[in-house]
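job 3f2a | input accepted
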Amino acid sequence: MPNTKSAERRAREGARRHARNRSVKSRLHTLERKYRTLVSSGKSEEAGQALRSASSALDKAAKRGVIPKRRADRKKSRLAQRLKAKPAA
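job 3f2a | predicted structure (89 res):
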């Protein structure tokens, strides 16, 4: 338990940030899963739209500090590679 007023405020702030970060990360996982299912089912047009929305969400999460910028870049790159590799297969 926090002993001072400032520690109480920091604990409340941390709880708010934790809730926001969890919801953003959950949304990212959902978008990635949706994209992977579209790619595996061969729907390249819908997968392209899903890739754009997932990339946008990753950039926003990185901008807000929920995830590191390099992780967002790496995930975007790997998602794009999946879409490129699928038609060749």
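job 3f2a | Residues 5-88 form a domain with the Methane Monooxygenase Hydroxylase; Chain G, domain 1 fold (CATH 1.20.58.110).
job 3f2a | closed
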